[in-house]
Amino acid sequence: AQSVTQLGSHVSVSEGALVLLRCNYSSSVPPYLFWYVQYPNQGLQLLLKYTTGATLVKGINGFEAEFKKSETSFHLTKPSAHMSDAAEYFCAVSRSGYSTLTFGKGTMLLVSP
Amino acid sequence: KAGVTQTPRYLIKTRGQQVTLSCSPISGHRSVSWYQQTPGQGLQFLFEYFSETQRNKGNFPGRFSGRQFSNSRSEMNVSTLELGDSALYLCASSSIGGPSDEQFFGPGTRLTVL
Lengths: 113, 114
Fold this sequence. Notes:
The complex is a heterodimer of chains A (113) and B (114).
Chain A: E1 3-7, E2 10-14, E3 19-26, E4 31-38, E5 44-50, E6 56-58, E7 64-68, E8 73-78, E9 87-95, E10 102-103, E11 107-112
Chain B: E1 5-7, E2 10-13, E3 19-24, E4 31-38, E5 42-50, E6 53-57, E7 64-68, E8 74-78, E9 87-94, E10 104-105, E11 109-113
Parallel strand pairs in B: 2-11
Antiparallel strand pairs in B: 1-3, 3-8, 4-5, 4-9, 5-6, 7-8, 9-10, 9-11
């Protein structure tokens, strides 16, 4: 069975500061990993995904994530936070043969001026 | 290209009633998945349809059912509503439903059960 753990239900940063959202997964087989963002009253939008190949993945809006197999982690980072980044972020995993996404509980990112 | 649309956006029902939610995927997408989002349980997978066949099912009671039509549009039905069914129901579509495919989400239907 797969599971995803996101450390911290809320993360607060100042505008211009580094954003780091943590995600650890457990999977018995090599996973596919995703980060989605959800703005209020909207559905989820894909930020980036890891399938195979390069372990550092670049996504939209300046976000990137690094797949670390030894640490079973897929943390999301952005060098400089912007007010518009305030939203809820979800880490998710799927595995070969299944399109089903297993989501973490989500991390609400708060950005202060 | 139009995104995933869900209707209605908001619904209020009472316990014991049934409800049907609709989802129109992105044109050309053949896989449609449904997720339930609640503050307590987070995002949970309900089921996935591909070419009118249910391909995967999550751990939900039989009161939750769905179907997919030949044009890939999908509906989900919840019978005998309970207070705990209050949630945001999200539909997602992808081209073939592969494990590495991006799933495109609709804005959701917010169901309130009184």
